[in-house]
Amino acid sequence: MGLLIGDFIVEVIGAGIGEW
Description:
Layout: H1 2-17
């Protein structure tokens, strides 16, 4: 679950700041 949520966060936030 943590991994799934973490990946989702990275996708959402990453799209906002322009990828990590």
